[in-house]
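A student in our group prepared the protein record below, which I am reviewing. What it holds is a sequence and that sequence's fold in C-alpha cell form. My question to you is simply how this chain folds and whether the C-alpha cells agree. Do not assume that whoever made the record got everything right. I have pasted the whole thing underneath without changing anything:
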Amino acid sequence: MYKNKKNKRKHLIVLIAIVVMIVALVVSIQLNRSNFFGEGIIKSVIMTIDKVVMYPFTALNGEKNVDQSESYIIQKNVNASLEKEIQELKEMLDLNSTLTEYTPINATILSRNKNYWFNQIMIDKGSKDGIKKDMAVITKHGLVGKISRVYSNSSEIKLITSDDVNFKVSVAIQTSSGDSYAILNGYDAEKEYVTVTGVDKMSDVKKGDSITTSGLGGMFPGGIYIGVVEDIKDDKYDLSKTLYIKTSQDFNNIHYVTVLKEKI
C-alpha cells in the first residue's frame, strides 16, 4: 500500500516537472530569452514526435508532387497525340471531298504487329462495309498500301513498305521529258525510303522528281502520289537505275486511312 502511494507520488512529481518545463519553454520562446536547462531536450523530443506524426503526410505530399509532374508530362503527350489525330481526321475529310471517281471508306487503325511494323496494319472496316481485297488505301499524304485480307468487321492492309517481294506497284516517274514507268518494290528501313527498280538507264530522272501510281495493271488508280526521288543508283549490271523515294507519309504514325471503293 505504502509502495503504491510512493509510486503515485513519483509519477505526480514527474508530471508536474514536465508541465513546468513546457510552460517555461513557452515563456522562454515568447520572451526571447536564452535556453534554460532541458529546453533543448524538450525541443528535440517535440521535433522528433512531429516528424514521426507528420511523416506519412509529408511522404504522401511528396508522392503527389511526383505524380503531378508525371501526370503533366503524360497529359501533355496525350494532348499532342490527340491534336495529331484530329489533324489526320481533318485531312481525311479534305481528301474525301477531292475523290470523285471513288467512294471513300474511312477507317481507323485497330492494331499493328511490332514484328511486322512496316508490313501490315489492321483496320476497323471489313466486308460488311464494302471492303474488298486489292482495294487501294491512301491518306492525305499519298499511297499507303492495298487491302490484302478481308474479314467481316476488319481488314488487313499490306503497306508499300512491306518486304514482300511479290508486292509490286506500277509507278510513273514525272521527269522533265515526260513520264517514265517502273516498279515500286522494297523498303530501305535505315534510310526510310521506298525503292523503285527497273528504271530505264536512259531516263533523265533527277532528284526531286515526283512519283505517282501509273494506273497500269488495274490494281491501283493512276495519279496517287507516293513521294519524291531522293537518291539514284545504277544497278549492279549497269542496265537500269534504282530510285530511293522519300514519302510524305510517316509510316511510323498512321491512325486513319481511306480505302478507295470504285463507284459502280
Observations:
- The mean pLDDT is 76.
